[in-house]
Write a structure and sequence with these properties.
single chain; two-stranded antiparallel ribbon; CDC123; 277 residues; alpha+beta; five-stranded mixed β-sheet; D123-domain-containing protein
Length: 277
Amino acid sequence: MYLNEDGIVMPIECNPNDSGDDSDEEAVQPPSFPQLSLAIRAAIEKYGVIIPKLNWSTPIDARWIHPTNTINCTTLEEVYLLLKSSDFVAGELAGQAFEGCVDSPPETIEWELALKQHIEISRNQEFRVFVRDNKIAGICQRDLNFYEFLQEEETQENIRNLIKTFWDENVKETFPNDNYVMDVYINQHDRVIIVDFNVYALRTDSLLFSYEELQQAFQSNELLFKVIDTPSDPLAQTGSYYASSAVPKDLIDASQGKNALEFQQTWNELIETSKKA
């Protein structure tokens, strides 16, 4: 599979002026995915800015490679580059999405690429909801920074009620699984909007909870609610997200100000230089 192969080579559709013919027999020939590329371009044309997701994995850990340090895509090359550079995507392709499942992984997996429209939202209004056996066990903020307004008891109660009511009325009886993690956003009009769904498993970040804590809450029929309550909270975000997925500084420097095709060339040059060292 293209995403599992070593190196970064953009599909031929990203550079239609390149026929792929090269006098150097050892040159890597770019792959071609005409139908997929056409669908991606159509989504970009329709929505302007899109966010890619492969089945369960969004390549947010690869945002270091994007010129804007986001996963917001406006070109075909950016979509392929993020998917190719993501440890999360690579892990899913290796079967990690099924780790911890009682049932065995299916013999064949139907891979799907979702292209979601990007909408600007306030990160301090995003929350992660943990559902166990079709009951909410916990709710916490997604962005691990301290926010003064989240300390008010009335605000916390309002957030709890908004999310619980929304889940009861729109998700509880319609979502096909009983165990999952749901990310939501509450807009300025107190409307709850679903951002994403993830598996209820260790591979999904439990943020301010431990899974043992969530299990205890479920067994005692509690609904836990947590926010970062002080700027010095040990769980507060102090470093870069997904730092373990980052790369050496010289490679990050090499990616700055370049589009995906230019970065591909720089990447290959760095590899060749390292071989000669």
